[in-house]
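How it folds
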Amino acid sequence: MLSIVRTITRREVRETLTDWRILAPIFILTFILPQVLIGATNFAINFIEDSGAIIRLIPFAMLLVGFIPASFSLITALESFVGERERNSLESLLAMPISDAALYVAKLIAALLPPLLSSLMAMCIFALSLRISFPDLFFEGLPAQYFFGVIILITAKALMMVAGAVIISSHTTSIRAANLLASFVLLPTAALVQLEALLMISRRWDIIWYVIALLVVVTIALIRTGMSSFNREEILSREHEQLQLKKTWANFKRFLAEYQSPGIAAADYSGRPFSFRYFYRQELPVLLRDYRIPIGMAIFAALAGLLLGGYIGQTYRVPMIENFINRVGTAPEPNLLLGLAIAANNIRVALLSSLFSMFGFGAFSFLVPSVAFAQIGFVATELAHRNGGWIGMGPQSPLPFLLGYVLPHGIIELPTAILGAALGLRMGVSILSPPAGFSVGQHMMWSLAQFFKVWALVLIPLFLIGGLIEGLISPMIIRALYG
Protein backbone atom coordinates (compact mmCIF):
# COMPACT_ATOMS: atom_id res chain seq x y z
CA MET A 1 0.00 0.00 0.00
CA LEU A 2 2.79 2.43 0.89
CA SER A 3 4.55 1.81 -2.41
CA ILE A 4 1.36 2.58 -4.37
CA VAL A 5 0.77 5.73 -2.33
CA ARG A 6 4.36 6.78 -2.97
CA THR A 7 3.98 6.09 -6.69
CA ILE A 8 0.81 8.17 -7.03
CA THR A 9 2.31 10.97 -4.93
CA ARG A 10 5.47 11.02 -7.06
CA ARG A 11 3.38 11.15 -10.24
CA GLU A 12 1.24 14.04 -8.97
CA VAL A 13 4.20 16.05 -7.68
CA ARG A 14 6.06 15.57 -10.95
CA GLU A 15 3.08 16.88 -12.92
CA THR A 16 2.85 19.89 -10.64
CA LEU A 17 6.55 20.75 -10.83
CA THR A 18 6.62 20.47 -14.64
CA ASP A 19 3.77 22.97 -15.14
CA TRP A 20 5.32 26.42 -15.62
CA ARG A 21 2.01 28.13 -14.80
CA ILE A 22 2.36 26.79 -11.27
CA LEU A 23 6.13 26.97 -11.03
CA ALA A 24 6.34 30.67 -11.94
CA PRO A 25 4.21 32.02 -9.06
CA ILE A 26 5.75 29.52 -6.64
CA PHE A 27 9.24 30.75 -7.59
CA ILE A 28 8.21 34.38 -7.18
CA LEU A 29 6.57 33.80 -3.82
CA THR A 30 9.41 31.62 -2.54
CA PHE A 31 12.44 33.69 -3.51
CA ILE A 32 11.26 37.21 -4.36
CA LEU A 33 8.50 37.90 -1.82
CA PRO A 34 10.84 37.51 1.20
CA GLN A 35 13.27 39.99 -0.33
CA VAL A 36 10.45 42.43 -1.00
CA LEU A 37 9.47 42.30 2.68
CA ILE A 38 13.09 42.73 3.74
CA GLY A 39 13.20 45.86 1.56
CA ALA A 40 9.95 47.01 3.17
CA THR A 41 11.59 46.49 6.56
CA ASN A 42 14.45 48.76 5.55
CA PHE A 43 11.94 51.40 4.42
CA ALA A 44 10.00 51.05 7.70
CA ILE A 45 13.17 51.54 9.74
CA ASN A 46 13.91 54.80 7.94
CA PHE A 47 10.28 55.97 8.03
CA ILE A 48 9.15 54.86 11.51
CA GLU A 49 11.15 56.01 14.49
CA ASP A 50 9.59 53.49 16.89
CA SER A 51 11.73 50.35 16.57
CA GLY A 52 9.47 48.50 19.03
CA ALA A 53 6.58 48.65 16.57
CA ILE A 54 8.76 47.17 13.82
CA ILE A 55 9.92 44.36 16.12
CA ARG A 56 6.33 43.42 16.85
CA LEU A 57 5.58 43.24 13.11
CA ILE A 58 8.41 40.80 12.31
CA PRO A 59 6.49 37.58 13.22
CA PHE A 60 3.48 38.79 11.24
CA ALA A 61 5.71 39.48 8.22
CA MET A 62 7.02 35.93 8.45
CA LEU A 63 3.43 34.67 8.73
CA LEU A 64 2.57 36.56 5.56
CA VAL A 65 5.61 35.15 3.75
CA GLY A 66 4.51 31.63 4.65
CA PHE A 67 0.76 31.97 4.16
CA ILE A 68 0.75 33.30 0.60
CA PRO A 69 2.69 30.34 -0.91
CA ALA A 70 0.70 27.93 1.30
CA SER A 71 -2.55 29.33 -0.11
CA PHE A 72 -1.48 27.92 -3.47
CA SER A 73 -2.23 24.52 -1.99
CA LEU A 74 -5.85 25.25 -2.84
CA ILE A 75 -4.99 25.20 -6.55
CA THR A 76 -3.39 21.76 -6.51
CA ALA A 77 -5.91 20.36 -4.02
CA LEU A 78 -8.95 21.58 -5.93
CA GLU A 79 -7.68 19.85 -9.07
CA SER A 80 -6.83 16.59 -7.33
CA PHE A 81 -9.96 14.72 -8.52
CA VAL A 82 -12.04 17.10 -10.60
CA GLY A 83 -8.97 18.00 -12.65
CA GLU A 84 -8.51 14.32 -13.49
CA ARG A 85 -12.12 14.26 -14.68
CA GLU A 86 -11.65 17.20 -17.03
CA ARG A 87 -8.40 15.70 -18.36
CA ASN A 88 -10.23 12.38 -19.00
CA SER A 89 -7.78 10.49 -16.79
CA LEU A 90 -10.07 9.87 -13.83
CA GLU A 91 -11.26 6.44 -14.98
CA SER A 92 -7.76 5.03 -15.31
CA LEU A 93 -6.77 6.48 -11.93
CA LEU A 94 -9.79 5.03 -10.13
CA ALA A 95 -9.29 1.66 -11.84
CA MET A 96 -5.95 1.15 -10.08
CA PRO A 97 -5.81 -1.77 -7.61
CA ILE A 98 -5.70 0.45 -4.55
CA SER A 99 -8.10 1.09 -1.71
CA ASP A 100 -10.15 4.27 -1.51
CA ALA A 101 -8.31 5.34 1.64
CA ALA A 102 -4.87 4.89 0.06
CA LEU A 103 -5.89 6.78 -3.07
CA TYR A 104 -7.31 9.62 -1.00
CA VAL A 105 -4.19 9.86 1.19
CA ALA A 106 -1.93 9.87 -1.88
CA LYS A 107 -3.87 12.73 -3.45
CA LEU A 108 -3.83 14.60 -0.14
CA ILE A 109 -0.06 14.31 0.25
CA ALA A 110 0.59 15.20 -3.39
CA ALA A 111 -1.55 18.35 -3.12
CA LEU A 112 0.19 19.39 0.09
CA LEU A 113 3.90 18.83 -0.58
CA PRO A 114 4.80 21.47 -3.25
CA PRO A 115 3.09 24.50 -1.67
CA LEU A 116 4.08 23.52 1.86
CA LEU A 117 7.74 23.08 0.92
CA SER A 118 7.60 26.38 -0.95
CA SER A 119 6.10 28.06 2.12
CA LEU A 120 8.71 26.63 4.49
CA MET A 121 11.52 27.61 2.14
CA ALA A 122 10.16 31.16 1.84
CA MET A 123 10.01 31.55 5.62
CA CYS A 124 13.56 30.25 6.01
CA ILE A 125 14.81 32.64 3.31
CA PHE A 126 13.04 35.52 5.07
CA ALA A 127 14.57 34.61 8.43
CA LEU A 128 18.06 34.18 6.95
CA SER A 129 17.85 37.48 5.05
CA LEU A 130 16.64 39.25 8.17
CA ARG A 131 19.51 37.72 10.17
CA ILE A 132 22.05 38.99 7.64
CA SER A 133 20.54 42.43 6.98
CA PHE A 134 19.10 43.36 10.39
CA PRO A 135 20.58 41.12 13.11
CA ASP A 136 19.12 43.22 15.94
CA LEU A 137 15.61 42.91 14.56
CA PHE A 138 16.12 39.19 14.03
CA PHE A 139 17.18 38.42 17.59
CA GLU A 140 14.57 40.68 19.23
CA GLY A 141 11.62 40.13 16.90
CA LEU A 142 12.07 36.52 15.84
CA PRO A 143 13.42 34.36 18.67
CA ALA A 144 13.35 30.57 18.30
CA GLN A 145 9.93 30.11 19.91
CA TYR A 146 8.35 32.64 17.52
CA PHE A 147 10.13 31.20 14.49
CA PHE A 148 9.05 27.61 15.12
CA GLY A 149 5.59 28.76 16.26
CA VAL A 150 4.96 30.44 12.90
CA ILE A 151 6.25 27.36 11.03
CA ILE A 152 3.94 25.03 12.96
CA LEU A 153 1.04 27.46 12.46
CA ILE A 154 1.54 27.65 8.69
CA THR A 155 1.91 23.85 8.44
CA ALA A 156 -1.35 23.29 10.32
CA LYS A 157 -3.12 25.91 8.21
CA ALA A 158 -1.87 24.38 4.94
CA LEU A 159 -3.02 20.94 6.07
CA MET A 160 -6.46 22.30 6.91
CA MET A 161 -6.84 24.08 3.56
CA VAL A 162 -5.73 21.02 1.60
CA ALA A 163 -8.02 18.70 3.56
CA GLY A 164 -11.02 20.93 2.87
CA ALA A 165 -10.13 21.51 -0.78
CA VAL A 166 -9.68 17.80 -1.54
CA ILE A 167 -13.16 17.13 -0.15
CA ILE A 168 -14.55 19.81 -2.45
CA SER A 169 -12.66 18.35 -5.41
CA SER A 170 -14.03 14.86 -4.78
CA HIS A 171 -17.64 16.08 -4.69
CA THR A 172 -17.77 18.48 -7.64
CA THR A 173 -17.94 17.86 -11.37
CA SER A 174 -15.95 20.81 -12.77
CA ILE A 175 -12.96 22.93 -11.83
CA ARG A 176 -15.11 26.05 -12.10
CA ALA A 177 -17.54 24.72 -9.49
CA ALA A 178 -14.63 23.69 -7.26
CA ASN A 179 -13.08 27.16 -7.48
CA LEU A 180 -16.38 28.76 -6.50
CA LEU A 181 -16.78 26.45 -3.53
CA ALA A 182 -13.21 27.20 -2.47
CA SER A 183 -14.57 30.30 -0.72
CA PHE A 184 -15.83 27.93 2.01
CA VAL A 185 -12.15 27.30 2.79
CA LEU A 186 -10.52 30.60 1.89
CA LEU A 187 -12.85 33.01 3.72
CA PRO A 188 -12.56 31.50 7.22
CA THR A 189 -8.82 31.01 6.71
CA ALA A 190 -8.35 34.67 5.75
CA ALA A 191 -10.37 35.75 8.79
CA LEU A 192 -8.18 33.53 10.95
CA VAL A 193 -5.03 35.15 9.55
CA GLN A 194 -6.32 38.55 10.67
CA LEU A 195 -6.89 37.20 14.18
CA GLU A 196 -3.41 35.68 14.22
CA ALA A 197 -1.93 39.01 13.15
CA LEU A 198 -3.55 40.76 16.11
CA LEU A 199 -2.32 38.05 18.49
CA MET A 200 1.24 38.24 17.15
CA ILE A 201 1.40 42.02 17.32
CA SER A 202 0.11 41.92 20.91
CA ARG A 203 2.55 39.06 21.73
CA ARG A 204 -0.23 36.69 22.85
CA TRP A 205 1.54 33.50 21.82
CA ASP A 206 -0.25 31.55 24.53
CA ILE A 207 -3.50 32.01 22.59
CA ILE A 208 -1.79 31.26 19.27
CA TRP A 209 -0.95 27.78 20.54
CA TYR A 210 -4.64 27.25 21.24
CA VAL A 211 -5.34 28.36 17.66
CA ILE A 212 -2.82 25.79 16.41
CA ALA A 213 -4.51 23.07 18.47
CA LEU A 214 -7.89 24.08 17.02
CA LEU A 215 -6.48 23.91 13.48
CA VAL A 216 -5.14 20.41 14.15
CA VAL A 217 -8.53 19.24 15.44
CA VAL A 218 -10.35 20.72 12.44
CA THR A 219 -7.80 19.16 10.06
CA ILE A 220 -8.24 15.71 11.60
CA ALA A 221 -12.02 16.07 11.34
CA LEU A 222 -11.78 17.12 7.68
CA ILE A 223 -9.45 14.25 6.79
CA ARG A 224 -11.69 11.70 8.49
CA THR A 225 -14.75 13.20 6.83
CA GLY A 226 -13.10 13.13 3.42
CA MET A 227 -11.92 9.54 3.76
CA SER A 228 -15.28 8.30 5.03
CA SER A 229 -17.25 10.04 2.26
CA PHE A 230 -14.85 9.20 -0.58
CA ASN A 231 -16.26 6.58 -2.94
CA ARG A 232 -14.84 6.03 -6.43
CA GLU A 233 -18.07 4.55 -7.78
CA GLU A 234 -20.00 7.69 -6.87
CA ILE A 235 -17.30 9.88 -8.42
CA LEU A 236 -17.49 7.96 -11.70
CA SER A 237 -21.29 8.02 -11.78
CA ARG A 238 -21.58 11.70 -10.85
CA GLU A 239 -22.63 13.77 -13.82
CA HIS A 240 -22.44 17.48 -14.54
CA GLU A 241 -24.98 19.18 -12.30
CA GLN A 242 -26.81 21.87 -14.20
CA LEU A 243 -28.81 24.45 -12.33
CA GLN A 244 -32.47 23.65 -12.80
CA LEU A 245 -34.40 26.18 -10.76
CA LYS A 246 -37.78 24.53 -11.19
CA LYS A 247 -36.52 21.12 -10.09
CA THR A 248 -34.47 22.64 -7.28
CA TRP A 249 -37.47 24.53 -5.93
CA ALA A 250 -39.63 21.42 -6.13
CA ASN A 251 -37.07 19.40 -4.15
CA PHE A 252 -36.73 22.18 -1.60
CA LYS A 253 -40.50 22.22 -1.04
CA ARG A 254 -40.48 18.45 -0.52
CA PHE A 255 -37.67 18.73 2.01
CA LEU A 256 -39.54 21.59 3.70
CA ALA A 257 -42.96 19.95 3.84
CA GLU A 258 -41.92 16.51 5.05
CA TYR A 259 -38.99 15.41 7.17
CA GLN A 260 -36.99 12.39 6.12
CA SER A 261 -33.49 11.43 7.20
CA PRO A 262 -30.68 12.70 4.94
CA GLY A 263 -29.88 10.42 2.04
CA ILE A 264 -33.47 9.72 1.01
CA ALA A 265 -34.03 11.21 -2.43
CA ALA A 266 -36.78 13.78 -2.86
CA ALA A 267 -38.50 11.49 -5.38
CA ASP A 268 -38.93 8.85 -2.65
CA TYR A 269 -40.84 11.17 -0.30
CA SER A 270 -44.43 10.20 0.38
CA GLY A 271 -45.80 13.61 -0.61
CA ARG A 272 -47.60 14.06 2.71
CA PRO A 273 -48.91 17.65 3.10
CA PHE A 274 -47.38 19.69 5.88
CA SER A 275 -49.10 19.46 9.26
CA PHE A 276 -48.19 21.43 12.36
CA ARG A 277 -49.46 18.67 14.63
CA TYR A 278 -47.49 15.98 12.79
CA PHE A 279 -44.34 18.10 12.77
CA TYR A 280 -44.31 18.78 16.51
CA ARG A 281 -45.34 15.27 17.57
CA GLN A 282 -43.59 13.06 15.01
CA GLU A 283 -41.02 14.85 12.90
CA LEU A 284 -39.32 17.09 15.47
CA PRO A 285 -38.22 14.22 17.77
CA VAL A 286 -36.80 12.35 14.77
CA LEU A 287 -35.01 15.51 13.58
CA LEU A 288 -33.46 16.06 17.01
CA ARG A 289 -32.26 12.48 17.06
CA ASP A 290 -30.70 12.85 13.60
CA TYR A 291 -29.04 16.08 14.75
CA ARG A 292 -27.57 14.52 17.90
CA ILE A 293 -23.96 14.95 16.74
CA PRO A 294 -24.18 18.72 15.95
CA ILE A 295 -26.22 19.20 19.14
CA GLY A 296 -23.46 17.43 21.06
CA MET A 297 -20.87 19.68 19.41
CA ALA A 298 -22.89 22.77 20.36
CA ILE A 299 -23.14 21.54 23.97
CA PHE A 300 -19.39 20.97 23.96
CA ALA A 301 -18.90 24.55 22.70
CA ALA A 302 -21.10 25.83 25.53
CA LEU A 303 -19.19 23.88 28.20
CA ALA A 304 -15.85 24.94 26.73
CA GLY A 305 -17.01 28.57 26.74
CA LEU A 306 -18.16 28.26 30.35
CA LEU A 307 -14.78 26.91 31.46
CA LEU A 308 -12.89 29.45 29.36
CA GLY A 309 -14.96 32.31 30.75
CA GLY A 310 -14.23 31.11 34.28
CA TYR A 311 -10.51 30.95 33.52
CA ILE A 312 -10.52 34.44 32.01
CA GLY A 313 -12.49 35.74 35.00
CA GLN A 314 -9.80 34.46 37.37
CA THR A 315 -6.84 35.58 35.25
CA TYR A 316 -7.71 38.72 33.28
CA ARG A 317 -9.78 41.86 33.52
CA VAL A 318 -12.17 42.79 30.71
CA PRO A 319 -13.32 46.44 31.11
CA MET A 320 -16.62 45.96 29.28
CA ILE A 321 -17.70 43.07 31.50
CA GLU A 322 -16.24 44.77 34.57
CA ASN A 323 -18.63 47.67 33.96
CA PHE A 324 -21.54 45.22 33.86
CA ILE A 325 -20.38 43.57 37.10
CA ASN A 326 -20.30 46.94 38.82
CA ARG A 327 -23.96 47.43 37.85
CA VAL A 328 -25.12 44.00 39.03
CA GLY A 329 -28.21 44.45 41.20
CA THR A 330 -29.79 47.20 39.14
CA ALA A 331 -32.58 46.33 36.76
CA PRO A 332 -34.69 48.34 34.30
CA GLU A 333 -38.43 48.69 34.61
CA PRO A 334 -40.35 45.72 33.17
CA ASN A 335 -41.12 46.71 29.61
CA LEU A 336 -42.74 44.91 26.69
CA LEU A 337 -40.65 46.80 24.13
CA LEU A 338 -37.50 45.83 26.04
CA GLY A 339 -38.46 42.17 25.82
CA LEU A 340 -39.15 42.42 22.09
CA ALA A 341 -35.84 44.23 21.52
CA ILE A 342 -33.95 41.52 23.43
CA ALA A 343 -35.69 38.80 21.40
CA ALA A 344 -34.93 40.59 18.13
CA ASN A 345 -31.26 40.93 19.07
CA ASN A 346 -30.97 37.24 20.01
CA ILE A 347 -32.65 36.21 16.76
CA ARG A 348 -30.38 38.47 14.73
CA VAL A 349 -27.16 37.15 16.30
CA ALA A 350 -28.12 33.48 16.10
CA LEU A 351 -29.53 33.74 12.59
CA LEU A 352 -26.62 35.66 11.07
CA SER A 353 -24.04 33.40 12.70
CA SER A 354 -25.80 30.35 11.24
CA LEU A 355 -25.97 31.87 7.77
CA PHE A 356 -22.30 32.90 7.90
CA SER A 357 -21.49 29.34 8.94
CA MET A 358 -22.28 28.23 5.41
CA PHE A 359 -18.96 29.86 4.45
CA GLY A 360 -16.96 28.66 7.45
CA PHE A 361 -17.75 24.98 8.10
CA GLY A 362 -20.06 25.95 10.97
CA ALA A 363 -17.37 27.89 12.87
CA PHE A 364 -19.56 30.98 13.44
CA SER A 365 -22.39 28.88 14.89
CA PHE A 366 -19.88 27.15 17.14
CA LEU A 367 -18.96 30.56 18.60
CA VAL A 368 -22.51 31.55 19.64
CA PRO A 369 -23.01 29.14 22.59
CA SER A 370 -19.34 29.36 23.57
CA VAL A 371 -19.43 33.17 23.80
CA ALA A 372 -22.80 33.19 25.61
CA PHE A 373 -21.66 30.70 28.25
CA ALA A 374 -18.22 32.33 28.48
CA GLN A 375 -19.89 35.57 29.60
CA ILE A 376 -21.82 33.68 32.28
CA GLY A 377 -18.68 31.90 33.46
CA PHE A 378 -16.68 35.13 33.55
CA VAL A 379 -19.22 37.12 35.59
CA ALA A 380 -19.99 34.26 38.00
CA THR A 381 -16.29 33.54 38.61
CA GLU A 382 -15.46 37.20 39.13
CA LEU A 383 -18.34 37.60 41.61
CA ALA A 384 -17.21 34.47 43.47
CA HIS A 385 -13.69 35.90 43.61
CA ARG A 386 -14.94 39.19 45.04
CA ASN A 387 -17.30 37.49 47.50
CA GLY A 388 -14.90 34.79 48.54
CA GLY A 389 -17.18 31.89 47.67
CA TRP A 390 -20.05 30.57 45.59
CA ILE A 391 -22.65 30.20 48.34
CA GLY A 392 -24.47 33.20 49.74
CA MET A 393 -27.14 35.69 48.80
CA GLY A 394 -25.13 38.87 49.21
CA PRO A 395 -25.04 41.52 46.49
CA GLN A 396 -21.60 40.35 45.34
CA SER A 397 -22.42 36.64 45.38
CA PRO A 398 -22.72 34.69 42.10
CA LEU A 399 -25.81 32.79 43.32
CA PRO A 400 -28.34 35.67 43.05
CA PHE A 401 -26.75 36.63 39.73
CA LEU A 402 -27.42 33.17 38.34
CA LEU A 403 -30.94 33.07 39.82
CA GLY A 404 -31.89 36.54 38.58
CA TYR A 405 -29.87 37.31 35.48
CA VAL A 406 -29.50 33.84 33.94
CA LEU A 407 -32.03 31.25 35.06
CA PRO A 408 -35.48 32.82 34.38
CA HIS A 409 -34.97 33.43 30.67
CA GLY A 410 -31.81 31.37 30.20
CA ILE A 411 -33.68 28.14 30.78
CA ILE A 412 -35.35 28.85 27.43
CA GLU A 413 -32.84 31.01 25.55
CA LEU A 414 -29.69 28.96 26.16
CA PRO A 415 -31.07 25.59 24.93
CA THR A 416 -32.61 27.46 22.01
CA ALA A 417 -29.24 28.98 21.14
CA ILE A 418 -27.65 25.52 21.33
CA LEU A 419 -30.26 24.10 18.92
CA GLY A 420 -29.74 27.07 16.57
CA ALA A 421 -25.99 26.49 16.69
CA ALA A 422 -26.54 22.80 15.86
CA LEU A 423 -28.60 23.75 12.81
CA GLY A 424 -25.89 26.14 11.66
CA LEU A 425 -23.17 23.55 12.25
CA ARG A 426 -25.03 20.95 10.19
CA MET A 427 -25.61 23.44 7.41
CA GLY A 428 -21.97 24.55 7.49
CA VAL A 429 -20.55 21.03 7.16
CA SER A 430 -23.16 19.85 4.66
CA ILE A 431 -20.67 20.46 1.87
CA LEU A 432 -18.09 18.14 3.45
CA SER A 433 -19.81 14.79 3.91
CA PRO A 434 -23.00 14.25 1.92
CA PRO A 435 -24.65 10.95 2.89
CA ALA A 436 -24.90 8.07 0.46
CA GLY A 437 -27.42 8.89 -2.25
CA PHE A 438 -27.07 12.66 -1.84
CA SER A 439 -24.95 15.03 -3.89
CA VAL A 440 -23.36 18.06 -2.28
CA GLY A 441 -26.10 20.34 -3.65
CA GLN A 442 -28.89 18.06 -2.42
CA HIS A 443 -27.37 17.83 1.03
CA MET A 444 -27.03 21.62 1.24
CA MET A 445 -30.64 22.00 0.07
CA TRP A 446 -31.86 19.47 2.63
CA SER A 447 -29.94 21.19 5.46
CA LEU A 448 -31.23 24.60 4.41
CA ALA A 449 -34.83 23.35 4.37
CA GLN A 450 -34.56 21.93 7.90
CA PHE A 451 -32.85 25.12 9.01
CA PHE A 452 -35.69 27.38 7.84
CA LYS A 453 -38.42 25.06 9.08
CA VAL A 454 -37.04 24.65 12.59
CA TRP A 455 -36.22 28.34 12.82
CA ALA A 456 -39.73 29.38 11.82
CA LEU A 457 -41.61 26.83 13.95
CA VAL A 458 -39.36 26.35 16.99
CA LEU A 459 -36.54 28.83 17.47
CA ILE A 460 -38.26 32.14 16.74
CA PRO A 461 -41.20 31.39 19.11
CA LEU A 462 -38.79 30.26 21.85
CA PHE A 463 -36.58 33.33 21.40
CA LEU A 464 -39.69 35.52 21.66
CA ILE A 465 -40.78 33.78 24.86
CA GLY A 466 -37.29 34.05 26.34
CA GLY A 467 -37.03 37.73 25.38
CA LEU A 468 -40.40 38.55 26.93
CA ILE A 469 -39.41 36.77 30.14
CA GLU A 470 -36.13 38.72 30.21
CA GLY A 471 -37.93 42.00 29.61
CA LEU A 472 -40.98 41.50 31.85
CA ILE A 473 -40.19 38.94 34.57
CA SER A 474 -36.42 38.96 35.08
CA PRO A 475 -36.34 42.63 36.26
CA MET A 476 -38.84 41.82 39.01
CA ILE A 477 -36.85 38.79 40.12
CA ILE A 478 -33.62 40.80 40.15
CA ARG A 479 -35.22 43.52 42.30
CA ALA A 480 -36.59 40.91 44.69
CA LEU A 481 -33.19 39.22 45.06
CA TYR A 482 -31.17 42.43 45.40
CA GLY A 483 -33.68 44.40 47.41
Summary: Residues 100-133 form the longest helix (34 residues). The CA atoms of residues 412 and 466 lie 6 Å apart. The chain has 22 helices and no strands. The chain has a mean pLDDT of 79.
